[in-house]
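Dissemination and training. As part of the outreach component of the grant, students in the summer workshop were shown how a complex can be specified as a set of sequence lines and then modelled as a single object. The example used during the hands-on session is reproduced here so that future cohorts can follow it. Participants entered these lines:
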Amino acid sequence: MSIPIPRPGQKYKEVTLKDGRKAILRAPEWRDLDGLLEFIGELVDERVEIVRNTKPSRGEEAEWLGRRLVAIENGSLVALVAEINGKIVASSEVEKRIRFPEMAHVGGLGIGILKNSRGAGLGAAIMESLLQLAKEIGLKVVILDMFATNTVARRLYEKVGFVEVGKIPKAIH
Ligand SMILES: CC(C)(COP(=O)(O)OP(=O)(O)OC[C@H]1O[C@@H](n2cnc3c(N)ncnc32)[C@H](O)[C@@H]1OP(=O)(O)O)[C@@H](O)C(=O)NCCC(=O)NCCS
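and obtained this result:
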């Protein structure tokens, strides 16, 4: 059975976390600009093991979000944010590598969750949803990059079926 891809702002599902809080998983939309700016700012301040370590300006974030909304409309990206009591606590996506038609079946995945919403099953729920949606946009292979030292992320990825294919020394400064 095919699952409808959530358009910008549309709800995908509600999940109950292990601590009883309810999170709404939905596609991002334009009015999320400030919420997403605050979200990435908190991850950067915490120095989590993601590639970005500087805060984007509002303009940069607007460009980033605008490109994502266009890609959702084009069917080359599935994105989910998680909202708890109106605050964005997670952002995630899988994007098709559309530069070459021969690689349009391959997608790159990214996910981040704010500190106070980790360890309660949200990551697993988002990954499960994203991977289902990735199939719906025609992806056969999903890849991701991670810091080799990020053991929590590794456990989550392995739990949903990812396997390591290699390490790239000094890939990130
Ligand atoms: C990595 C991340 C997405 C995981 O999401 P999460 O909501 O915390 O994960 P979950 O609660 O769904 O847990 C999934 C699995 O991860 C592992 N895990 C979660 N928290 C853990 C912890 N504190 N220590 C060790 N393992 C942990 C467990 O194996 C867990 O499965 P289990 O509950 O069945 O044992 C989240 O911690 C995060 O956003 N971290 C900061 C940003 C980041 O590192 N992003 C990934 C970059 S590649």
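Helices lie at 33-46, 58-74, 122-136, 151-159. Students were then asked to discuss how this feature might be tested experimentally.
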